[in-house]
Here is the input.
Amino acid sequence: MSLGAVAEAGPGALSAGAAALAGQEGAGAGFHPVLPWLILALPLLGAAVNGAGAFLWRDDKRIPTIIGPAALLGSFAVVLVNFIAMSRADLHGAEVIGLWNWIVSGDLRIGVDLQFDQLSMLMCMIVTGVGSLIHIYSVGYMRDDPGYSRYFSYLNLFVFFMLVLVLGASFPLMFVGWEGVGLCSYLLIGFWYENRDYANAGKKAFIMNRIGDAGFLVAMFLVFTAFGTLDFIPVLEAADGTLAYGGALVTGITLLLFLGCTGKSAQIPLHTWLPDAMAGPTPVSALIHAATMVTAGVYLIARTSVLFALSPVSQGVVAAVGAGTALFAASIAIRQYDIKKVLAYSTISQLGYMFLAVGVGAFTAGVFHLMTHAFFKALLFLGAGAVIHAVHHAWAHGDGHGEGHGDPNDMRNHGGLRKFMPRTFVFMWIATLAIAGVPPLAGFFSKDEIIWYSGAYGYPILWGVALATALLTAVYMARLMVMTFHGGNRTFGQRGSAEAGRRLHEVPAVMWAPLAVLAVLSVVGGWANIPEALPLLPTVEWLHHWLEPVFAPAIAVKEAHGFAPEYRSPVGGGEALWAVISAVIAIAAVVATVRVLAPKPVPTEAEAPTGFARVLHDKWYVDELYDRAIVRPSLALWRACWRIVDAGLIDGAVNGAGRAARLLGWAGGQLQTGRVTTYLVAFMLGALLVLGVLS
Amino acid sequence: MAAALGLNGLIALFVSAILFSIGVIGVLLRRNAIIVFMCIELMLNAANLSLIAFSRMHGIEGQIFVFFVMAVAAAEAAVGLAIIIAIFRHYEVVDLDRFRLLKW
Amino acid sequence: MTAFYDGHWILTALVVLPLIGGAACLLAPEARAKTVALATTLVLFALSLPLFWTFDTAEPGFQNLVSIPWIEAWGISYAVGVDGISILMILLTTFTMPLAVAGSFSYIRRRERAFYAMLLFLTTGMIGVFVALDLFLFYVFWEIMLIPMYFLIGVWGGERRIYSAVKFFLYTAVGSLLMLVAIVTLAWIFQDGSGAWSFAYEDLVSLELARRAQLWLFAGFALAFAIKVPLFPFHTWLPDAHVEAPTAGSVILAGVLLKMGVYGFLRFGLPLFPTAATDPAVVNAMLVLGLIGILYAAWVAAVQPDAKKLIAYTSVAHLGFVVLGVFGLTTQGIEGGILQMVNHGISTGALFLLIGMLYERRHSRQIADFGGIAKVMPVFAFALVVVALSSVGLPGTNGFVGEFLILVGTFRTHPWIAAIATTGVIFAACYMLPMVQRVLFNRLDREENRALTDVTRRERLILAPLLALILLIGVWPGPFLNRTRASVEALIEHVETRTAGVASSGAGTVEVRLEAGLEAGAEAGGGE
Here is the structure.
């Protein structure tokens, strides 16, 4: 067990920065985070300032323009310093910085403690790095929006919560971030709240996430009951001895945690919120619904890898759900026309890959794909945003024809944008090739590693599914590129390209510059973990070594119980061979799709797909199923509870009791005639009766 | 007990009982408020009579009670007659069957 | 300061001051009544604050004790004191009152003197309930409270105010009468044993009662408390009372009055009748009722067209959580329960204030009459969103801390019930978010809503402390939790030692190991 060394749990945060410098000299265990609280404080401060700005200086866009991205860049700088410091230090355990006691009750102690280890630092790099780029991009994208300041406030707040999620040293603190990012997601999906569908989408996301969160909560209760603490380090250290391998308890904990993951990371059966979440501004989709928040589930499993390693059943479930989701979502993506919907299903599919990876036990591969996916999917979304921005502006600034053009997200309204947006075109193709798995781009390495390990760890069916999904991925991405950038332009319908030439423009530098950075990352990102079988660069297995201290206990548990990779695929052949095969498949699929689709006319909106294509276009009718099987019966039940049980039975009984009392009073009142003589007779009879009884 | 009371005492008690019964019957059956009122006085006096009769046997207290009863009866007569007169002035009848003033 | 503020007179001052203030309100000119009331409540709050600072967190017993004989022949005394269970309740009361008064400034337009006097008389009753350490005195305060509340609903309420006021009064009176019987019986049992009458808490709590007697007496108390909480199925007075009550009435009802039921269980139900209160049948019944409250009330709330009624039902759900925590009988559960009572007072009080602000502007509480309000009332929208998030228990707000502690505590003894209760967090989102959306978001498509003005300076001053507390307790609940700790631990210890003493009960196993608990739960679950 190398996850050790709880550092001072007391409030030693402020002094830690000074100690860090000293720590670097003393090589060995000497890593002390520099200004760790600043990583969180800067985005939070940004959120507060921009939030105040949303009320106080609504129309002044200068302050949010500076504060929003600056908060992120500052945070990124601190993370970078710490990352470098950590890579220089020989750190085996995690470094925990305690800020203050949050909840203390009886034997329960939950501190606001930040955990610095290789995994959390890597995530911080991704979150603040990609986050910074997207913040900069947003300056251009949201320029004309009246809610500019509010937007940056939410976005900063999101990054804050995401960092809490990543850095939290205990389940509950991670849960703070977990629900906090859900809140920001809710607010940003419903950012244009005047549109009822958008507001509904936000609500749907929140509620579906809450279903998963309930699982997370119960998992925490089980952990606390079993371990007496909720801090990651003691729990994970004690897990191997406390919990029986494959026992009901560890399986229950991990499955409940995974329920949380399915909600947050949009896996079957809780995946339906993510496509709807595309209602938010596109940079939000890039940051929250592609690069960072939705990968939180993968992060959670990576963080608690020991627990999952202890439960082969849970591992199987995670892997199967991941692979199933990957294929399922990819099949839907093939038949979508909304550019963001394609990317949304693509995201679900790629998240499925990550779960497949952490499910089979290739934790490094899962985190690796998480990282590369953050680069190329953010790039794809931002590129799609650029397209939407351009089309929207082309329509909006027209000569009175702005009305009635339709949906700028719809790829049937794009086409041939290569001519008008050359930079975006190039960047988007880089990202497409990366996600399709074309070497030597990022996605090739990470995805290939996942496919390879799912075979090597002995899941032949999932291996096949993963390969098939890789093929579909190449197809739907190539289709997206063809429909958007190739062929003739359809933005202005019959009036042709002359109009388009005047109106469609490349986006400003503030928007394409972040694309360029991400494009570079999409190319080189995969080189961080070159497989041993293909030693093309000196960074062989770098990421693997970097994350080794985090995953070593889990791997040890797996190996102790006979789960070691076999280093051969289910049908034979080594890693290098299969890398080549999958690369060939990807390239072939891309080329074939472009060749087949490019000459074909794009169907108009009136031409509805038929047959199986329609099932895919309508997303396998999962939303409809949920609506009929769950939402409507629930509402009917709730109404019945109100009308029948509450107003009928309970209040009926209460009011009935009141009525009965009144009836009794009325009956008694009838005895009172008001005539003196009646009373006297009664009195006399009573007196006689009393006398009779007494004597 | 009869021996202690003596014959006169017994007669007094019988008279008292008869007077009381007349009073009761009058109160129950008559409708004129004045007569009902008189019957109540009759019952009080019947009680007075038996108190005096018993005071022969038990001492002076019975006679003291009689004075109390007479005082109360006088007060009652004053108040009761006043009420009856007030009712008569208002309704111009004193027939008890015509009144349901005690209801609610 | 400490010499002056030795605390012994302070509780009495808290009880008496509102009475004087109320009388002053009645005597003041109509236009000045609100000022007098606000000043009184602010002084009250200021007086109560040092209670918080000077509270000895290590002391499990009562602090600032005062006991003066009242009716000596019957052993009745004026005995008041404060401990970890009541300190937060007292502060919640004194904190809520200025907000309730200030929140009524523009809402109440007629019979102002009487209105503010009633509010202040009510305050006396409420604080009295929380400080009383003599069961007779407690009963007096408990009943006194009803009268001003009855008038608040009946005179200044909405259209069906008479029905609601009578329903409220009768419902609660029925419960408390049985409690009176139980109180007198207790005193009689004490007299039977010791020869002297006494209603003093410390005397009665030392009684060792037979199991059967405990069950009957507990039932008498429990009915009164269950109605006040309110536990399903005794909750139907609450939605009616809330809907018809004026804003201040709703705020106090939700903020303080509902807490008395659970407070009663903690102060009297558990310590006086430990065997009965830990009897598996009783505990399971209370937990299941709490659980039903959580789920059922959330469901009913989700389909309410009236915003105020919706919030009223959420109160039932929140208090269901509290009952769960209390009868889970763990430190976390009870501390969480107490904290959650405070949280509920803050967040639901704030919700009622916010809905009241809307009602003042639009004279409607129907959710369907609004939509897109965020456009014209951004500050209001911000406040409503924060408060709603606190109500659904989002981490970082106070609601989460309470709910988490309750659930984690209850899970240790009754894992299945706690696990099912956890789904309540889903349903909380199902009732709160649609309401928020339909009021604040969507298109602003009603003309009359366009002219709505955002919250005024006075309203901001009312909301600001509430929002601040929501966030403060959310991130730093320590000062609140550590004031309850000693008393709660003492309470649990008291209950455990007592039940261990009564051999026949067999209910002493408060700390059930996980496996055993899971099995028992599975059996119970199978039986349902």
